[in-house]
Amino acid sequence: MSTPAECQVLSLWQTVVTVQQQNLGDDFNARLSAIAIEAERNVSPSGSFYDRTGYYNLFDLDDPDIRVFAELMSHRFRAHLYLQYKDAYAYHWDVSVRAFANVYDYGQRIRPHYHHACDFVSVYYTELGDGSKPDFKTNEAGRLVVIDPRGAVQYPFSAKSQRVPTEKGCLVFHPAYLEHESETHFAKGLRVMVACEFTILHGQRRAFGPLPRVDNPNPPTILPTEFSGDTIYNAHYK
Ligand SMILES: [Fe+2]
User: Fold this and answer.
1) Residue 71 maps to which CATH number?
2) In a domain, 182, yes or no
3) Ligand 1 center–CA 209 separation, angstroms
């Protein structure tokens, strides 16, 4: 599987963001959307990330389409490391990965965030509803918005965020630290994407092990409250 010729490389604030169109076909994208929607319903009462109360990994599913997608992500991610970072170990690393879905209904968006516990993130758009129609008041069209990750930088003062065009079949890679959000989804139908989080298991990380559990000798004891079901997602929207 070769790297697609059409790979748009954006160098934003010394941060590499790549955008490339995949040709997996409408049938494959529809099946992947269905898997993603079902996975979200399993952890969210409404099926929306607004109410997500747990974490999961689509790559745990024993499904032929998921296996195809996982292999594609490995090809594309390693090519990203090799071509954009000149990483000679790109095809040698063991990489830990988690895939999950984001499903947007009309009027929904995701607020600015970066990703925890990983090095890189990919987003693959399987469904955009009936198209990326800009809202007539705000010109929002569900695009990916990336935000300058540098603290208090004074120049360029007019480009603190930039919009990345996103279409069905579009695959984006960016580093986990890059803060990003989505514009509001104003098209009819659901907007579905499958995100992946990649962690490179280099030698230092392989040396880590569990810290022993010990009793707390410091009174008074702070009792844990009952688990609220909060995740980094639904905590935004309370
Ligand atoms: Fe994200």
Assistant:
1) 2.60.120.620
2) yes
3) 28
Average pLDDT on 13-28 reads: 92
Domain ranges, residue 215: 7-237
Q: How far is the CA of 181 from the centre of ligand 1 (A)?
A: 7
CA 164 to ligand 1 centroid distance, Å: 13
Measured in angstroms, how far is the CA atom of residue 105 from the centroid of ligand 1?
Answer: 17
More confident residue, 27 or 7: 27
Distance 172 CA to ligand 1 centre (A): 11
Question: Is 45 within the bounds of a domain?
Answer: yes
How far is ligand 1, taken at its centre, from the CA of residue 143, in Å?
12
Q: In the block, which residue shows the tokens 């990919």? A: 122
Number of domains composing the chain: 1
* Res 74 pLDDT > 70: yes
- Ligand 1 centre from 185 Cα, in Å? 15
Contacts of residue 9, defined as CB under 8 A and 6 or more positions apart, other chains included, come to: 16, 17, 18, 84
Q: What pLDDT, on a 0 to 100 scale, did the predictor assign at position 237? A: 61
Confidence band for 214, pLDDT divided at 50, 70 and 90: very high
Structural domain includes residue 201: yes
Within a domain: 2: no
Does 116 score more than 60 pLDDT?
Answer: yes
On whether the CB atoms of residues 144 and 172 are closer than 8 A, the answer is: yes
What is residue 214's three-state secondary structure? coil
The DSSP element (H or E) to which 11 belongs, if any, is strand 7-12
